[in-house]
Amino acid sequence: MSNSILLTPGPVQLHPEVEKILGLPMIHHRTPQFDEILNSCLKNLKKIFCTTQPVFALTSTGTGGMECLLINTLNKDDQVLAIISGKFGERWATMAESFGGQVLRHNVPWGESVNPKDIESILNKNPEIKIVLCQACETSTATSHPIEELSKIISKTSALFLVDAITALGAYPIMMDEWKIDGLVGGSQKAFMLPTGMSFVSFSEKAWVQIKKNKNTKFYFNIENEYAANKKGETLFSSNVTILRALDFVLKDILKKGLDKHFQEIKNRALYTQRISSDLGLTLYSKSPSTSVTALKLPTTIDGVKFRDQLEKKYSLIVMGGQDHLKGQILRLGHMGYIPTNQLHESTLKLAALLNENGFNFNLEAIENKSKDYIKEIFTCQ
Amino acid sequence: MSNSILLTPGPVQLHPEVEKILGLPMIHHRTPQFDEILNSCLKNLKKIFCTTQPVFALTSTGTGGMECLLINTLNKDDQVLAIISGKFGERWATMAESFGGQVLRHNVPWGESVNPKDIESILNKNPEIKIVLCQACETSTATSHPIEELSKIISKTSALFLVDAITALGAYPIMMDEWKIDGLVGGSQKAFMLPTGMSFVSFSEKAWVQIKKNKNTKFYFNIENEYAANKKGETLFSSNVTILRALDFVLKDILKKGLDKHFQEIKNRALYTQRISSDLGLTLYSKSPSTSVTALKLPTTIDGVKFRDQLEKKYSLIVMGGQDHLKGQILRLGHMGYIPTNQLHESTLKLAALLNENGFNFNLEAIENKSKDYIKEIFTCQ
Known about the structure:
Two copies of one chain form a homodimer.
Chain A: E1 5-6, H1 16-22, H2 32-49, E2 55-59, H3 62-71, E3 79-84, H4 87-98, E4 102-107, H5 116-125, E5 129-135, E6 137-138, E7 143-144, H6 147-154, E8 160-164, H7 176-179, E9 183-187, E10 198-203, H8 205-213, H9 223-231, H10 241-257, H11 259-279, E11 283-284, E12 293-297, H12 304-315, E13 317-318, E14 320-321, E15 330-334, H13 341-357, H14 364-380
């Protein structure tokens, strides 16, 4: 499958240089060489998080990072407001319950973003709420939530605002300090363009006050201990040398290029996908589409599970389908990672060809020309 | 540092093929291609664990795996007997306390192995003990504990025997089912010859009875949920594609060669290290030396911290020193990972040369010849 194209919302395609770095001989994590890498990563991560607070690199998937945010701030029986608009919102709410939180579920229809006024009103009526949970981008529906507006409301209360930005951080601006987010988590296999294996978290000053008083039992994800180790230039447990070494390259590469330009590239892929999909009769599922991932509604005549399978087996184009009740109804195309524009173009041709095999009658030459035009327009007009 | 030699007890040197696999293009974890890899890994891990029970592959360091063993079996206020003979025994005891265990610490002098009779007597006097914790190999002192004998004693009681075999599993025989170990954990960066990033755990039937009744709060390391996901051919959270793909190669490679032969190779490195070190006036620190790692006492005239530093900077030989009160007193040389015999030989020459620079007067030619002889004798007499 070496010529396949991976366009999922994580894991993503790796930069050729990252592939090289992942294959380098092992070095020990208690060496000056690694100390420099760790120091550089932790320093540059702050720039992605837009924070002056320490950022931590944990050996876990994104879910482990979500657990870290929660168990360092949540106490048993605390009231938690969970904004749920898809699978990952549901997961975080369940997690909060597992750790003894009294969870108030605010269900938002899948594909829609939360209305900040609803949250304001819930917080006004429930001043006991200690923590609010929300996804920056709900990956299962490719929907972004108004994190800045929510932060403004929540920061006026005593509640902490914990944000799962696993499919957002590094893909579009999330201004932790400026917006007043209290806990933020990203994942290595998303916009950090690395393999699955690490999560990155940070906490606000307001959160640190709660962390110091927190009574939840924890060890692996104990952030006070991790902080103490980081201050000594070490990670708390064995360092994830392979991923951190590649992260160092990715962060330097992104920052050298400029965050704005990096975000624009990802956004351009989303814009391209939206335009060309529309020509293929595929409409946007989300009413608040993220730039990190796009969910497209398939025509009702098409069995989406079979369609995705055919894309993979016959055309070596790997995209994701819908989850839970969206199974078979949508396709999700990720825009993060290393995606040259010629691969975007190729993906379109594959998609169009398979649609034609499924009863449609698109003029493939016309689609090819449109795709070329869009790429030219979108990727060169900055 | 491409010509450096890494002889630490983890992370270890990688097989050239593993380096290649780590650098392969990313694939998605929800694909038939990855399903096959995961299935193969989970099946072959059982052979290393010597168990018919399911083995789980978690995205965490070894400490995360230790936490997984504990939080799935420990209930608040449970009595725990912790066998402590070094830094990692101490860590596990502290962890058990963090999760509400009433920990009885059985301190064994560093460098010595526990006397099973002492444990028998403690268990007889304390029938309330629910869990016994022990390292198979205490990495900080390079000391192996009599896990088989301990298992025989503990399996007659109602207590569960949880074994941290992070520096043992895959390096020498640990027969989970036959010996009746109730919880067992290994780590990717040790005898599995991979980067840091995954831990592998398994539980006995006796442990599963307790797991089902367990009331401890948990989410990321909830093994019942992981088991349910594995039964569907998936991991509970995003799969660690990069490490699992390399693990699949390593396990197949080890099993093709034969576990006995693989264990013998590691043991041979320990035997070689013991013999040549003795010629260099370096004596064994441990009274029960492990075959996975050797701790050598440095002459008292030598500042061990400086010596290790010189080995690294001047000779590009990376070994570990002592921890806590052993700092500056010992060197620890790991025997796991990809270590061609010529590198063992080279390491000896580097060590001898640096000893001479520090006031000793070894005949380097004689050492070179002895080293060659030992390698010939030890590695060819099987």
